[in-house]
């Protein structure tokens, strides 16, 4: 009698394990086949939209400015989105979200690199003397260049191989994303002349994202 109850319980456990594994497989399937590709397309869309606008000549009176600003805006937005991932993962209790960070980080770099390229090419026509003068004389450009330079090693070390090779140092290196985000917002503040509403919104969002991390560290240590 006892033996049959035992075998029934084992059977039940096996069935629930199988159901759990199936559920996991379905979750993984949707994440990899639906969610990630969809996010990829969404992140690429602004660049395609701007390229289409430039091709159609529908970017307004100053298309060069529209391209530079558009790429800069998306670089900053995606950078902040990258910082949102880990608090969102905790809030939703969805660990898979962490696997989006690399894609988001690389997209942020992609937009910032295009932003820089548009400035160097379309705005300055590769006039390196003028560009150098801008870097040393206009603080908002200095700060932008610094943010870009610091972002480069993060993009270059974003592969799994580099993560393994650098070990603990990888985590330390990637903490640079915090000062980089501050520099990027500062770059925006220094650029605007009258309407401060946009940099203000980005500053509030960044303060919330950094504040949450600071609070958690203090609570954990306290
Ligand atoms: C992490 C790096 C960077 C980020 C996130 C970033 C982001 C931004 C943002 C959000 C704007 C304002 C866009 C708007 O007005 O809506 C902007 C403007 C601008 N950025 Fe950057 N930027 C970065 C690096 C750079 C670099 C390296 C350069 C050039 C050396 C640069 C050159 C400019 C210029 C020239 C503008 C002003 C465009 C204009 O007034 O028409 N940025 N950037």
Description:
86% of the residues lie in helices and 0% in strands. By secondary structure, the chain is mainly α. The chain has nine helices and no strands. It has helices spanning 2-56, 63-92, 101-123, 128-137, 139-156, 160-166, 168-174, 177-191, 197-221. α6 (160-166) crosses α7. The chain starts with a helix and ends with a helix. The protein is elongated. The structure holds protoporphyrin IX containing FE.
Question: Could you provide a short overview of the structure?
Answer:
The protein is about 85% helix and about 0% strand. The protein has about 220 residues and is mostly helical. It has one domain.
Q: Which features does this protein show?
A:
222 residues; mainly alpha; 9 helices; elongated; binds protoporphyrin IX containing FE
Order of helices and strands: HHHHHHHHH
Strand content: under 5%
Instruction: Give the number of helices.
Output: 9
Mean pLDDT: 92
Structural class: mainly alpha
Rounded radius of gyration (Å) = 23 Å
Helix content: over 70%
Q: Whole-Å distance between the termini? A: 54 Å
Describe the main β-sheet briefly: none
3D shape: elongated
Number of strands: 0
Give the bound compounds: protoporphyrin IX containing FE
Low-confidence stretches are: none
**Overall number of domains:** 1
């Amino acid at each position: 009698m006892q033996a049959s109850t035992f075998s029934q319980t084992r059977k039940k456990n096996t069935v629930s394990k199988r159901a759990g594994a199936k559920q996991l497989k379905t979750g993984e399937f949707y994440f990899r086949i639906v969610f990630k590709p969809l996010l990829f397309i969404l992140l690429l869309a602004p660049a395609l939209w701007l390229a289409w606008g430039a091709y159609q000549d529908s970017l307004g009176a100053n298309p060069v400015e529209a391209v530079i600003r558009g790429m800069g805006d998306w670089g900053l937005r995606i950078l902040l989105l990258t910082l949102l991932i880990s608090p969102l993962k905790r809030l939703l209790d969805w660990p898979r979200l962490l696997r989006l960070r690399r894609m988001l980080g690389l997209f942020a770099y992609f937009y910032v690199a295009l932003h820089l390229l548009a400035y160097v090419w379309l705005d300055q026509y590769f006039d390196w003397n003028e560009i150098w003068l801008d870097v040393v004389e206009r603080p908002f450009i200095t700060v932008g260049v610094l943010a870009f330079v610091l972002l480069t090693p993060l993009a270059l070390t974003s592969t799994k191989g580099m993560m393994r090779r650098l070990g603990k140092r990888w985590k330390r290196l990637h903490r640079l994303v915090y000062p980089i985000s501050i520099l990027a917002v500062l770059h925006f503040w220094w650029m605007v002349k009258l309407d401060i509403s946009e940099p203000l919104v980005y500053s509030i969002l960044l303060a919330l994202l950094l504040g949450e991390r600071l609070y958690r560290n203090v609570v954990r240590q306290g």
